[in-house]
Structure formats: C-alpha cells, structure tokens
Amino acid sequence: MNAPLFGEFGKPEGERHRLGAMQTLGSPMRRYSPDEEVDYAIVGVGAGGGVMLQRLARAGFRVVGFDAGPFWDTERDWVSDEKGSHNLYWNDKRITRGEDPLALGANNSGKGVGGGTVHWASFTPRFHPSDFRVYSQDGVGADWPICYRDLKPYYELIERELPVAGPAYFPWGDPHGYPYGPHPMGGVGDALIKGCTKLGIGASAGGPVAILSASRADRPHCIYRGFCIQGCKVGAKASTLITHVPDAIAHGAEIRAHSMVSRVDLGKARRVSGVTYFDRDGREHFQKARAVVVAGYAIETPRLLLNSACPGFANGLANSSGCVGRYLMAQAGNVVLGRFDELVRMYKAPPAHALTEEFYETDPKRDFARGFAIQTVGPLPIAFAKQMMVAKGAWGWGMRRIMMDYNHWAAFGVLGEILPHEDNRVELAEEKDQWGLPVAKVTFNLHDNDKKLIEFGKRKTTDVMWAAGAREVVQEARYAHLVGASRMGSNPETSVVDGFGRTHDIANLFVCDGSVMPTQGSANPGLTIMAIAARTADYLISQGEAIFGSDRRDMTPPKFRRDLSPPDTWGHGVPAL
Amino acid sequence: MSGYYPGFHTLEQRRFWDARTREVILDRVHNVPPIRFFSEEEARLMEAVCRHILPQDDRDEAQRIPILPWIDKRLFDDSHDGYRFEDMPPDREAYRLGMQAIEEISRHLHGRGFLEIGDRAQDELLRTLHDGDPPAAADIWARMPVERFWMLLVQDCVTEYYSHPYAWDEIGFGGPAYPRAYMRLERGEPEPWEVEERRYDWSAPDTYVSDRFEPVAGKEEHRGGPQEGTH
C-alpha cells in the first residue's frame, strides 16, 4: 500500500487547540488582568504545577499558571522526529560542573505546558515505604516528614487519573495493582524478561507506565510508535498538558505561557505579594497573588528563590536555612546496551515497558545502602549513536558500521538511588540569560555509597543482558531525573519546606515539584511528584482562606478528596480496583 | 548504497506521516541552509573534518547527507543544548579553537595544513583527538579538554547524519509512524512496508583508521558525555 486509504494525512482543520489525536481544548480560557489579585500564582505547569492548578481551579480558587515555554498544540507543534523535538527541553544557558557533571537539557528538563511530562518515558512506579525513612533505617540520607501511608491514597488516585497501565499485581514495595492492563512488549522488554527469568529475577512485563493500553474517552490507546520522549502526538501517553490542564481551564484557571517568572515578590509582614515575569516580547509585568506556589523543578525552583533575594532574605527567598539549592539529586541512569544475533528493532513500542525492582531495597550482604531498578529504554538512532560514541568510542567508518546494526541492539537502564549530599547543589552563576537573570550553576559529585551502588547495578544489569542472549554488552555512564534542592523536612534549619510544601520562612509561599524530595528511591519521580501535588492541593483547599491571611501553620492532615479528579477518572479500566 | 535493507526508503512513506512531521523532515531534505557562521576557509577545513567523523565516500553524490550546513546553522543561530560544561568555552568558541588546534597539529606533524595532508594522515590526526592524546596545541587544550571537544564534534555530526531519512534507510529505522502505528512489535519483524534485513560482508575502505577504535580517551570510562533523555 503506497498511500493512505483516504489520501495523505493533511493539516488539522480549524482553530481548535489539539491535545492528542482526538482531544481538543473545549472551553475558552479565562484571562485575569495583571492588576487583578488572584488567589494563587503557580510558577511552572509541569507534573506538580499541572496537578496543583487543576485541583485549585476545581475547588473554585482564582489561579494563574505561568510557564516559560509554549502552550503546546500537539498536532501543530510536535513531530515524530528526534532532532525536530529539540524545543521540548529547557535549552537556555546553564553551567554544569563538579567531578561528575550532569548533562542537562534533553536529559532532564522540560519547557512548556506539561513540563517534563511532555517528554517523560512515563514509567510510573511508586516509591517504596522504606524510601520515606532512609535515615532511620540505613543511617544515610534523610527521613521525610511524611510517610508512605500519607501518600498511598494519592498514588492510587493519580494512577487512575493518568491512568497507569501495568500488572494486576505488582509485588515490590507496598504490593498493588494497576487500573489498566499491561502493554504488549517490544524486543527490549522481551530481552529484559528473558534475561531476568533466566537468572531467577522477578520482573514486571508491560508496565507500570502512564500510557493507555485501552482507549479512554477522547484519548486513544498506544500505537507503539516509539516516540514517547519526543512528545506523544497520539495522546495515549499521559502528560499534565492533556490530563489535568484541560480540566483546570474548564474550571476557570488561566495559563500564561511564554511567561518567564523572574522574581517572587516579598510584600508586607514577611508574606509574598505576587510574581514578576517577562512576557514573550520581553516586557516585564507584575501579577498580584494572595499566595504563590513555585513548581519550576529542581533547577529553576531554587534558581527563582535565589534570584528573589531581597532585604530580609539576602541569601534568597525562604532560604534562612541555607538549604535552597542544596541536596540536589539525580539518579544513576547507566545505559547497558547489548547486541543480539537476532533482530530487535528497539524503536518500536514505548521505551518504557518492563522493569525489575528486585534490587531496590538495602541488602546487608552488599557493601552499600539502598538499591536500584533495571528498566527498558529504547534509544532512537541519534541517541543511540551518541551512546555508541561514549560506550565504544565509535566514530567515522566504525560509527557507520555499528549503526548499521542498530536493529540488533537492545538497551536497559539502571535506575539507581544516589543519596542527597550537601555539596550537590544549584547556585547562581555570574553569567546572565536572555532576560538578564543569573543562570543556574549546577554542581554534582558522586560519593562513596553512590559509586559502589552504580558499580553493582551496572554489573547486575550487564548480567541480565548477557543472560538474555546478547553477543556483546557495553555501557554508558549517565544520570536520569533531577530532584531535591528545596527539600521538605520537620526542622526549619535543615530544610526549605514543611510536609505540605509550605516554606518554613514564608507562610504564603509553597513549593510543589520534585525539588521538595529529601531522598529519591530508585523509582522514576513523576508519579510521586503528582501524588505530593494532589496531597498539597488537598491541604491548601482544606485550609481555605487561612492561607491568605494567617501565619499559623496548621499541620492537621487534610481530608482526602476523591471528588477533584478530572472527568473520566472513574468507571474505566480494570474493574477489580 | 550501504546498509542491510536494500530498497527501503522511509521517504516513500511520507504520505502516512502527520502534516507537521512531513513538513519538518522534507524541509530537512530539501532546504539545506547556506554557510553563514564559518568563513570560506573554515568551512573547507570543517567539511574535511566532517568527512572523517562521518565518511560518506560510499554514497552517490546525490545520496550524501549534508552535515556541515546544519552545524553551521546551529552555531549561526547560537542554539544550545541547555547546558555548558564549566571547563568548556561556548560552542562557537569551541569550534574556532578546535579548528585552530587541528591546523596546529597538522603543521606540527606534517609541516602542512590539514587540507594538504592525505586521507589516511587526516584520519590518524583526528584519531589523536579521539584518543585524548593530541601531539600539539597544548595551550588550546588547556582551555578546552580535548575529550569534550571531540564529543561535541562527533555528537553534532551524528545528530545531523542520523536525523536524515537516507540514514534511516541505511540502518533500517522505520521513522515516523503517527498516525499509522507500528503493528509488529515482536521478534524484530518488519512492518508490511518495511523490508527484511539482508546481511553481507561490509568493510570500510582501508585508507582509513576510523573503523578500528577504543573507547574515547582510552579504556578508562569517560564521565560526563552528552546524555540524551532515556528514562
């Protein structure tokens, strides 16, 4: 067949704003004028900010979400192409340094409505109960001020809202099942399951991943095209852009895209009064707000707080602890690549579709604390070529030769817990960005436990690849995700926010993104960021007007709200749940 | 034509792609930008360097994938990947320093510029950068770690080469599949519109050394390469 049955696929007709193949933005968006005081200004509409915006709007608050990037139309803006997806990332200047400098940009950042969820591979495992008390249990890292039980109902809720596809029984951590059935697997998942099974390692096939394995409402099921991390044009992969933002707008939220917040402004009586931002033409504006939620992720959140230094907060807003920017974490993300005699074609199926958490917990038999997961990854040609450049030193004719075997390779990712360290941090550099704001300077060093864990994880993952039948196995050292740098804690001297994301210093300033995490486990952070956001939202809603007028810090846990989910959350999927 | 997928042409599938993807990829194929960042002299040097980083002598003239014009465009637009290693100059300066160093090494080894030494000598010269052991231009490498410059150069070249549909044909990558979908996920089977692999003994011309290599900067694992998002 040389042509589609009904002719070439043309441009989408009309002015409708597309959010996936079938869904469009239904309602016109409310617009607040800048001198109109809103209840909440949310800085960053990604995993945390997107869920927060939707909850607050549904609860009737007047809320504006700022994002430095575009409000994507998935049909007009996104492409099934690696190079053409460069604009999904935070590509502005940043400095990276330290003994083990982190790659930023495409590796771990988003810019635009949906944030990183636009290009996450969307593995959505929960954290384990042990992740919340690493210090008590292992004497390393830090304890969280909240525990697994606090988040459990929110995990269940967000798994429905996205929703997550995976096995009906997932055995690790707190065993649970998923609301949608697992996905069929591609060659990489088959290799992972085969290798694990041969070594007697339990593994999960077909999830957990926030990609529809069956259509739901206006969102079609996955078509296995493999371009998950280039943005899902299908609308099968969840991102807050398509799962939470439409509902937020339907309930009166405003999204102000192309708006780079440069400062959170301090008003009277140690309370913030709103945010200053640049619009896409570089004009500066001030938006009055009764409370501010910063959700810019682990680099932009601390950068914004540091850039908001003012009399009374000379070292950065809400930084009396000196912890803003500190305890930044990335996960070990070594990619182990195996070449097989048979064809794999790893560009098909979502990169994320099988994993094992058999090595997640501390094992006293090993010489390090905490652990790691092994997950499928599916690099497309450019990413794979770069991996071969590092892993094998390939170039020239050698690169051409290796790449001709692209279809014979499979790739697994180690996802290893790196502990929080004070010296891993975000600071301000001398250099300025296009708005004249000091850019972030990111320092990253591995410590002893991290190095041992990575070495072990790499070896184990290599074993699995050999057991799957690979003829050659190589690896690339790298890191995945970013969390920490504005961490939560009970002690105001060693943390930035409390268990509800409220800054210890300022009663109407909150942080709601991955930067609040004191430790990170070996689970991809997206689901946990959203679960924390939903819980923080319940708290803000339960506190009502008190947030805007009182400095009293009421630590009563909020009532769990099932009634604030986007439409179509309930009544679909696996009936057992 | 190299590769193990004779007769496979992803571009023939373009009517199955969505409009925006088709527009972006056809633009890449048909609208190659002019050289604006590099001077004429620099462009000649860089053209020769790219010809070694990603050699295409086996391709017909019409089937060669433009690499330098896109690197030039990136530098002309001053477009970034979102970070800069603290020990590296900005990309524009890195390229200018790198070209200067390559010329210096060539004069040091051969008493002539890079363009005047033979293919084999050019390949061997570039291999000293790959190995992290350049025999000259120490003052430049003090300002810019040679491994980082090497990776910048190679990653820019592979980005351009493997973003082109002709390269997808060569490696058997199916390319865009929205809205049509992939339906054969198992056992590496081709879609009805893909072709079966047909392997044969492929060898690089022996006037080059780049088909034999060790990991960058020797066996010891290099830290801090350019990492794409994976998981």
What does this protein look like?
The complex is a heterodimer of chains A (577) and B (231). Chain A has 13 helices and 18 strands. Chain A is α/β, with parallel strands linked by helices. Chain A has a single domain (38-75, 94-549), classed as 3-Layer(bba) Sandwich (FAD/NAD(P)-binding domain). In chain A, helix 1 (47-58) packs parallel to helix 12 (526-543), helix 4 packs across helix 12 (526-543) and helix 5 crosses helix 11 (448-467). The two termini of chain A are 43 Å apart. Chain B has helices spanning 19-30, 40-53, 68-77, 91-110, 119-130, 138-143, 146-161, 165-171, and one strand at 84-85. The longest helix of chain B has 20 residues, at 91-110. Chain B is globular and about 55 Å long. Classes of the chains: A alpha/beta (577), B mainly alpha (231). Chains A and B meet through helix 2, strand 3, strand 12, helix 9 and helix 10 of A and helix 1, strand 1, helix 5, helix 7 and helix 8 of B. Strand 3 (95-97) of chain A pairs parallel with strand 1 of chain B, so a sheet runs across the interface.
Summarize the structure.
Chain A is an alpha/beta fold and 577 residues long. Chain A has one domain: FAD/NAD(P)-binding domain.
**What is the oligomer described by this structure?**
heterodimer
Q: Write down the Rg of chain A.
A: 23 Å
State the major sheet of chain A: 7 strands, mixed
Strands of chain B, total number: 1
List the helices and strands and how they pair.
The complex is a heterodimer of chains A (577) and B (231).
Chain A: E1 38-43, H1 47-58, E2 63-66, H2 74-77, E3 95-97, H3 134-138, H4 148-161, H5 187-198, E4 204-205, H6 240-243, H7 245-250, E5 254-256, E6 260-266, E7 272-278, E8 284-294, H8 297-307, E9 329-332, E10 335-339, E11 354-356, E12 372-377, H9 381-391, H10 396-404, E13 409-416, E14 425-432, E15 438-443, H11 448-467, E16 472-476, E17 479-483, E18 509-511, H12 526-543, H13 546-549
Parallel strand pairs in A: 1-2, 1-8, 2-5, 3-15, 8-18
Antiparallel strand pairs in A: 4-11, 6-7, 7-8, 9-17, 10-13, 10-16, 11-12, 12-13, 14-15
Helix pairs in contact in A: 1-12, 4-12, 5-11
Chain B: H1 19-30, H2 40-53, H3 68-77, E1 84-85, H4 91-110, H5 119-130, H6 138-143, H7 146-161, H8 165-171
